[in-house]
Design goal:
This protein has 121 residues and is mostly helical. It contains six helices and three strands. It comes from Halomicrobium zhouii.
Length: 121
C-alpha cells in the first residue's frame, strides 16, 4: 500500500495539465529551435520574423523560407504565444521572447536523450 501511495504522489497528478502543456510546446522541433535561438543565439529578446526564418533555415535546410515563414506565423508562433513564451505582433512582424526559467535546462535534457552520452552498454 505504501509503495502505491508513494508512486501516485511522485507523479504529481495536480501538475498534469502544466506538464502536458510544456510537452506540447516542446514537442515540435520548430518550437524547440525558436526557443533555442532566443536562449543561445541572440542577446535581444525581440527579433523580426525574417531574422528568425534566416536562422532557422540554417538549422532546418530541407524547407524553403516561404514555407518556413508560413509554418511559423500560422502554427508555431501562435502556439508559443498562447502559452506565454512569446508575443508575436503580426502588424510589425516582431517576436518578443519571454521564455521560461527552465527552458535551456529542458532543451538540454531533450538533447541528451538523443545523444550517444545517454546510452549505456
Amino acid at each position: 500500500m505504501l509503495l502505491v501511495q508513494m508512486a501516485s504522489q511522485s507523479c504529481y497528478p495536480d501538475k498534469a495539465p502544466q506538464v502536458s502543456r510544456l510537452l506540447d510546446v516542446l514537442g515540435h522541433n520548430l518550437r524547440r529551435e525558436i526557443i533555442h535561438f532566443f536562449e543561445n543565439y541572440t542577446e535581444s529578446q525581440t527579433v523580426f520574423v525574417d531574422e528568425l526564418v534566416s536562422h532557422l533555415l540554417g538549422r532546418i535546410p530541407e524547407t524553403s523560407a516561404d514555407k518556413l515563414q508560413m509554418k511559423l506565423v500560422h502554427t508555431h508562433l501562435p502556439k508559443l504565444a498562447r502559452t506565454g513564451w512569446i508575443d508575436h505582433d503580426r502588424r510589425t512582424d516582431e517576436v518578443r521572447y519571454y521564455g521560461h526559467d527552465h527552458a535551456e535546462t529542458w532543451l538540454g535534457d531533450l538533447r541528451a536523450v538523443f545523444s550517444d552520452r545517454t546510452h549505456t552498454t
